[in-house]
Amino acid sequence: QVQLVESGGGLVQPGGSLRLSCAASGFTFSSYAMRWYRQATGKERELVARITTTGSITNYADSVKGRFSISRDNAKNTVYLQMNSLKPEDTAAYYCTAALRNTDRYWGQGTQVTVSS
Fold first, then answer.
1. Rounded to an integer, what distance in angstroms lies between the CA atom of residue 48 and that of residue 25?
2. 54: pLDDT confidence band, cut at 50, 70 and 90?
3. Which of 81, 106, 87 is nearest to 9 (CA)?
């Protein structure tokens, strides 16, 4: 059974940091590129960050570049999103996906991040 389970979300003050984790099981994690999306209430879903199978290449949305960092540990079947200098506009549900041939194949259930004082 394929599972992607996100964790690490919560309430944080502006300027703070959070580290999201996404634990994968039920498929060959190291064969899939991984992505983090977010969706704020009333807004379209946004691709925040992505990482290749080996972790050698990462890409970020302009809105998070320089503040967020995606990484993965293939030995632990886990992808991470380190979020620093958080802003209220980063408030959203964050989802990880596993992608193959540039198509999101599996989705997690999401974790909520709220940035507020």
1. 22
2. very high
3. 81
